[in-house]
Amino acid sequence: MDKTYCVYVLECNDGTLYTGYSNNVEKRVATHNSGKGAKYTRSRTPVTLKYTEIFQSKEEALSAEYRFKRLNRKKKLEIIREKSKELSE
Questions:
Q1: Minimal CA–CA distance to 31: which of 58, 49, 15, 5?
Q2: At the topology level of CATH, where does 5-88 sit?
Q3: Which of 10, 19, 20, 39 could bridge 47 with an S-S bond, Cβ 3.0-4.6 Å?
Q4: Cα(75)–Cα(79) distance, integer angstroms
């Protein structure tokens, strides 16, 4: 069975964004919302999944996560909006 890895972006309850990667996004979001996820999100629950992108390898996902984290907030929100628009078409 091939594993896929996903970069995901969460919107925290204070409006900030958190980016991570996982091979099981639904489980990871639940972990964040239970207060047992990343230190950053623990005091910012509930979190909402805003964006996902799937990769075939962990290395690709980690590289994409790094690139996304380096973007400014405006650019991150543009990417999230574009993805949402594509999905609704």
A1: 49
A2: GIY-YIG endonuclease (3.40.1440)
A3: 10
A4: 6
